[in-house]
């Protein structure tokens, strides 16, 4: 863990969502995490992952550019959740494996309201037969909503799974996925 007084490596803000608080974190490069886990779990997890201090946006050590990045991301997420936005225009600091980069880039190409199965996405990225590995990569997406992993569904139009947050329980996470798909008009309420 970082020593007290270390310069921050990331800052975070909280954004209201229909299911509770959504936390958004940025580095100097861009948005590094979006999650609906507890604030403490987000901060502790990011501090371990990024090897440094993670502070709230109100902290006096947060650079102005980071504040602007967080403001833009939280505003755009609020607009999306209110049905006023269909795509995002914020820099993303995607610190994942090459495989996850490939899969997440494929998911990012899906348009608002468009869905694809895990197998279809595997085919689109040139890895037919890798549906299960695609699903695993979706579960590791550090910036759900911004990279719309909720648009990846199971074969035959089933909901499949939803990581969205590594700490959300399965049913709660699937409820969030349903809400996001319904918002985009690609899922009817149960």
Question: Any chance you could write out the topology, listing elements then pairs?
Answer:
Blueprint: E1 8-17, E2 20-26, E3 31-35, H1 39-50, E4 53-56, H2 64-81, H3 98-108, E5 116-117, H4 118-124, H5 131-139, E6 152-153, H6 170-183
Parallel strand pairs: 1-4, 5-6
Antiparallel strand pairs: 1-2, 2-3
Structural domains: how many: 2
DSSP helical segment count: 6
Bin the helical content: 25-40%
CATH superfamily of the largest domain: Winged helix-like DNA-binding domain superfamily/Winged helix DNA-binding domain
Topology, number of strands: 6
Can you identify the CATH class of the largest domain? Mainly Alpha
| Spatial gap, N to C terminus | 44 Å
What class would the helix/strand composition place it in?
Answer: alpha/beta
Contiguous low-pLDDT stretches (5 residues minimum) are: none
Largest sheet: 4 strands, mixed
The coarse overall form would be globular
CATH fold label of the largest domain: Arc Repressor Mutant, subunit A
Which features characterize this protein?
Arc Repressor Mutant, subunit A, 6 helices, 37% helix, Double Stranded RNA Binding Domain, globular, alpha/beta
Give an account of the 3D structure.
This protein has 190 residues and is α/β, with parallel strands linked by helices. It has two domains: 8-81, 2-Layer Sandwich (Double Stranded RNA Binding Domain); 98-183, Arc Repressor Mutant, subunit A (Orthogonal Bundle), CATH 1.10.10. The protein is 37% helix and 16% strand. It is built from six helices and six strands; from the N terminus they run βββαβααβααβα. It has helices at residues 39-50, 64-81, 98-108, 118-124, 131-139, 170-183, and strands at residues 8-17, 20-26, 31-35, 53-56, 116-117, 152-153. The strands form two sheets. It has a four-stranded mixed sheet with strand order 3-2-1-4. Strand 2 (20-26) and strand 3 form a beta hairpin. Helix 4 (118-124) packs across helix 5. The longest helix has 18 residues, at 64-81. It is globular. It starts with 7 loop residues before the first strand and ends in a 7-residue tail after the last helix.
């Amino acid at each position: 863990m970082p020593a007290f007084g270390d310069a921050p490596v990331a800052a975070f803000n909280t954004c209201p969502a229909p299911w509770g608080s959504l936390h958004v974190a940025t580095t100097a490069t861009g948005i590094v995490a979006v999650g609906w886990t507890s604030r403490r779990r987000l901060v502790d997890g990011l501090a371990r992952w990024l090897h440094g201090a993670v502070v709230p946006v109100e902290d006096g050590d947060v650079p102005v550019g980071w504040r602007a990045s967080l403001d833009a991301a939280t505003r755009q997420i609020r607009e999306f959740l209110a049905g006023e936005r269909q795509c995002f225009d914020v820099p993303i600091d995607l610190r994942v494996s090459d495989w996850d980069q490939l899969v997440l880039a494929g998911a990012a190409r899906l348009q608002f309201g468009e869905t694809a199965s895990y197998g279809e996405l595997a085919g689109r990225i040139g890895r037919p037969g890798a549906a299960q590995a695609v699903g695993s990569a979706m579960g590791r997406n550090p910036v759900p909503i911004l990279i719309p992993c909720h648009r990846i569904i199971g074969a035959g139009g089933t909901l499949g799974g939803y990581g969205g947050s590594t700490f959300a329980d399965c049913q709660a996470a699937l409820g969030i996925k349903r809400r996001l798909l319904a918002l985009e008009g690609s899922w009817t309420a149960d």
